[in-house]
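User: Cytochrome P450, Strongylus vulgaris:
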Amino acid sequence: MDFYLAGMETTSTTLRWSTLFMATNQRVQDKIREEIMSIIGADGKPTANFRNQMPYTMAAIHEIQRCANIVPLNVNHRTVKDTSVGSIPIPANTFVIGHIQHVMAHSPVFKDPKQFRPERFLLDDGITTNKETVEQMCPFSIGKRQCAGEALARVELFVGLVTLLQNYKIEPVQGKPVNLEPEFSGVLLPKQQPLRVTPVSA
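Assistant: Predicted structure for Cytochrome P450:
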């Protein structure tokens, strides 16, 4: 039950954030939809098998996770023996918390970190994955004992976002700017607010 609740909460929260980022970044949303229609089509069924064929969509999911950063401090770890990080010694039985926020928002690899820009995860050709930026991503924690549900969550995020944008266009409600300030409730939640959602065929 703990695994189920943990996975459900974090994945659904990330998908909620995705609706806000899509509403405030129409260019990105249109580009993802263009890739969806090109690879899957309007009536095709999204599955995890399409991920390798959809580099821009995958880059956008990375950027959603980076900007939402719903668990900024992540979970406690404990050293079982004396170790070090760089030149800093860490004795055995020391509690260690990965500061995910520092990596996602302040790593020198992520230039202009406050900008929502999926292209940072692709090379200049717009197709090849930028390994340098992808390797800095740590939304599922750090180390060997990171999120046990990472593989499933990645599939759910891909299928969820693709299904949504395959069928609907997401926009701000006129006169009501989207608020991207989070609320803390165990994880960083997006504020509840109205969005305009219309069928793609409309």
